[in-house]
């Protein structure tokens, strides 16, 4: 219905405002000046068809061009076209039109032109823009208060940067087409009589009353349904009983936080804000919007059924065989021709299917990766690691039950209890962890909360405290009060830890809590009814923290020497202590029960200044040196042979790695991540080699 030229194109400026005859049709159409026309492209003139192209529609709107629909619903030519082409399929019609233009001598040349052609995802059929009657909402008036609500802080985005994405949509908002041609949904509340006059109302009965229509007036409801996002926009208040003024609506609206993905900020979040403020007297639907990232596949690709890279969470939880996984990924596809490619990729990625990892391992993995809206790369190895974390918790449960079931756990407040250094330390560490986890949850840093829980559970409670409890519980020299204090600490700290873990790991924490509940004096039916832990600063014991850290460093130092010198863990060792202070000696004497048990000390001799020490392996605890004399502990010849063999093996491997790195064909052409990995392996080998050579020198000096 028009031809556009660029208004600054000197070749055609004199034609703007004139008319030109449309070949084959014979209709006069206007020539308009519009920046959509590209002077560098083709002739610089472009025919405008507002009814069948999105860009042309905008040009037509700017110049008031006629919108002429030439297609039927099946993309055949309708009666608005010359009679010769009516009824032809669009592709047949195009060929006929080209031939007719050529016959009239109007075809100058034919050139290939590459362009993006939209196709239906299921059918692969080329999609044509097509004018139809649709229902629209003028949302600009709704957008203004919704923009203000975010600007003035009534609604906060987390992370804050996502408010910019929100504003970019809302500041340039267009009328919203809310009607959809689907089989189900909220049906458009509009009715038509036999003359296609439109009546709008909640029900047909309401329409007849509103417009005073007699019963014999035939009405038919519009077949379209509301856009899914229109219905979803009602969610914050419609789920609470709106439009009735229910108690639930009064109590729970506005809600506190919406958790969603950044890809639907405009489709859902913005529309909920607009609708909530419209229908709930200006009240925002939620106060915070937490934006999480998308879960992508291992290669960073967005998951989609067409790519065949979707992972069903239930398959990770319950496990799935390779055969069933292949069937699931390659059946009922929208693009069946990709099935074989997807099957091949699946076999390569999951040769044995997916083992069962359990719900909590999956949940903890997602929590540990939920970092400030960043996308998550799905990695089964991470989930496997967190399944091991679940197993660690189960093993801790077994130990706690073995030491406490049927025994005095200090439930009677009148019974005396004595807390060991380890008891006071773990209670203190629990307070710090509780405060840290709570702070991270409040700031939506689920990754840091998970990290803190993991480090406390595995590194402090399981690896250290459970071991430190054994000398107290297994010693005949421990008093009843000391054993009672340690049993009480074992149970109470573990029960608190389960409540800390529960939001992320609800199933394992509930199951174990039910098991240990009789030992805690708790009476609620479920852990869900228990209060979430609150840190008690009065229980933070800086002295215990400092003293036990000294004990840990002492034990770690001796264990490291054992590992480096290949000394059996069960062998009791004599030690010499050099450059010590009275504080060191006092701390050692007060905590012999822990040191002797966990470090396996046979004897300890405190050297004075100037005393000579034999050739020894050394560990530092602050400024104090812990010496383990090597003579009599290590077979010099056997250890020399072992170290020499290990050194030779590492030297050979290091030579190969350095050879690859010095080869330009590898260093310059291999993927950067592969080169970086080889370089990292070489550095690790160099460090190991230096340590082994240092040990060999010590052994040879014996």
Describe the structure in your own words.
The chain has 702 residues and is of the alpha/beta class. The chain has 7 domains: 2-103, Valyl/Leucyl/Isoleucyl-tRNA synthetase, editing domain (Isoleucyl-tRNA Synthetase, domain 2, Alpha-Beta Complex), CATH 3.90.740; 136-180 and 224-292, no CATH class; 189-223, no CATH class; 296-356, no CATH class; 390-534, Isoleucyl-tRNA Synthetase, Domain 1, CATH 1.10.730.10; 544-634, 2-Layer Sandwich (hypothetical protein PF0899 fold); 637-700, Helix Hairpins. The chain is 48% helix and 11% strand. The chain contains 24 helices and 20 strands. The strands form 7 sheets. A 4-stranded mixed sheet has the order 2-3-1-4. Strands 18-17-20-19 form a 4-stranded mixed sheet, with helices on one face. A hairpin with a 2-residue loop joins β19 and β20. The model has no long low-confidence stretch (mean pLDDT 92).
What's the arrangement of secondary structure elements?
Blueprint: E1 2-5, E2 19-21, E3 28-33, E4 45-48, H1 54-63, H2 90-103, E5 136-137, H3 140-151, E6 156-158, H4 162-170, E7 176-177, E8 179-180, E9 190-192, E10 198-200, H5 204-211, E11 220-221, E12 225-226, H6 228-233, H7 235-238, H8 247-252, E13 255-261, H9 265-279, E14 286-292, E15 295-296, H10 313-318, H11 322-330, H12 339-349, H13 359-369, E16 376-377, H14 380-404, H15 421-442, H16 446-473, H17 480-501, H18 506-520, H19 542-565, E17 573-578, H20 582-590, H21 592-599, E18 601-606, E19 616-621, E20 624-629, H22 636-662, H23 664-667, H24 672-700
Parallel strand pairs: 1-3, 6-14, 13-14, 15-16, 17-18
Antiparallel strand pairs: 1-4, 2-3, 5-7, 8-12, 9-10, 9-11, 17-20, 19-20
Helix pairs in contact: 3-4, 3-9, 11-12, 13-14, 13-16, 14-16, 14-17, 14-18, 15-16, 15-17, 15-19, 16-17, 16-21, 17-18, 19-21, 22-24
């Amino acid at each position: 219905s028009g031809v556009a030229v660029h208004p600054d194109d000197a070749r055609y400026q004199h034609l703007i405002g004139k008319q030109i005859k449309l070949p084959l049709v014979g209709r006069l159409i206007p020539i308009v000046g519009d920046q959509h026309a590209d002077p560098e492209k083709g002739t610089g003139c472009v025919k405008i068809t507002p009814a069948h192209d999105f860009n042309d529609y905008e040009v037509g709107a700017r110049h008031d061009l006629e919108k002429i629909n030439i297609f039927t619903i099946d993309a055949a030519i309708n009666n608005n076209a010359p009679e010769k082409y009516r009824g032809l399929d669009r592709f047949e019609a195009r060929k006929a039109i080209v031939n007719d233009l050529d016959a009239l001598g109007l075809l100058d040349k034919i050139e290939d032109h590459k362009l993006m052609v939209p196709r239906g995802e299921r059918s692969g059929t080329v999609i044509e823009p097509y004018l139809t009657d649709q229902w629209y909402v003028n949302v600009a008036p709704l957008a203004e208060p919704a923009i203000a609500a975010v600007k003035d802080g009534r609604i906060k985005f987390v992370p804050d940067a996502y408010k910019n994405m929100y504003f970019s949509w809302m500041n340039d908002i267009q009328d919203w087409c809310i009607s959809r041609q689907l089989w189900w949904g909220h049906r458009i509340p509009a009715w038509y009589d036999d003359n296609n006059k439109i009546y709008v109302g909640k029900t047909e009965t309401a329409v007849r009353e509103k417009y005073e229509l007699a019963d014999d007036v035939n009405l038919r409801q519009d077949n379209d349904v509301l856009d899914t996002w229109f219905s979803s926009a009602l969610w914050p208040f419609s789920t609470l009983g709106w439009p009735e003024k229910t108690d639930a609506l009064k109590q729970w609206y506005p809600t506190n936080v919406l958790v969603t993905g950044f890809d639907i900020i405009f489709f859902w979040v913005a529309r909920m804000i607009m609708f909530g403020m419209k229908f709930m007297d200006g009240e925002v639907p939620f106060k915070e919007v937490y934006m999480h990232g998308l879960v992508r596949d291992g290669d960073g690709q967005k998951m989609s059924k067409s790519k065949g890279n979707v992972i069903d969470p239930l398959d990770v939880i319950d496990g799935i065989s390779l055969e069933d996984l292949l069937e699931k990924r390659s059946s009922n596809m929208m693009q069946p021709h990709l099935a074989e490619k997807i099957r091949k990729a699946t076999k390569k990625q999951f040769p044995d299917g997916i083992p069962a990892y359990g719900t909590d391992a999956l949940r903890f993995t997602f929590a540990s990766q939920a970092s400030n809206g960043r996308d998550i790369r799905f990695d089964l190895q991470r989930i496997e690691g967190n399944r091991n974390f679940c197993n660690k918790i189960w093993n801790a449960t077994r130990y706690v039950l073995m030491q406490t079931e049927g025994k005095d756990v200090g439930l009677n407040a009148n019974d005396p209890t004595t807390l060991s250094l380890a008891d006071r330390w773990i209670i203190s560490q629990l307070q710090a962890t509780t405060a840290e986890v709570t702070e991270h949850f409040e700031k939506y840093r689920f990754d840091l909360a998970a990290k803190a829980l993991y480090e406390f559970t595995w590194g402090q409670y399981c690896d250290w405290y459970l071991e430190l409890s054994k000398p107290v519980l297994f010693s005949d020299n421990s008093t009843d009060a000391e054993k009672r204090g340690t049993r009480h600490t074992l149970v109470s700290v573990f029960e608190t830890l389960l409540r800390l873990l529960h939001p992320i790991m609800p199933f394992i924490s509930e199951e174990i809590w039910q098991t240990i509940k009789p030992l805690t004096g708790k009476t609620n039916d479920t852990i869900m009814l228990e209060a979430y832990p609150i840190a008690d600063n009065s229980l933070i014991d800086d002295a215990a923290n400092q003293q036990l850290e000294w004990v840990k460093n002492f034990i770690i130092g001796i264990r490291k020497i054992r590992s480096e010198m290949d000394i059996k863990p069960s062998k009791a060792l004599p030690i010499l202590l050099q450059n010590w202070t009275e504080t060191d000696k006092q701390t050692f004497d007060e905590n012999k029960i822990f040191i002797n048990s966990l470090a396996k000390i046979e004897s300890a001799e405190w050297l004075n200044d100037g005393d000579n020490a034999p050739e020894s392996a050394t560990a530092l605890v602050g400024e104090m040196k812990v010496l383990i004399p090597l003579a009599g502990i290590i077979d010099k010849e056997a250890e020399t042979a072992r170290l020499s063999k290990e050194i030779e093996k590492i030297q050979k491997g290091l030579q190969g790695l350095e050879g690859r790195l010095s080869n330009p064909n590898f260093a310059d052409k291999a993927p950067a991540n592969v080169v970086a990995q080889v370089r990292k392996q070489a550095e690790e080998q160099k460090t190991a080699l230096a340590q082994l050579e240092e040990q060999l020198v010590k052994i040879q000096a014996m």
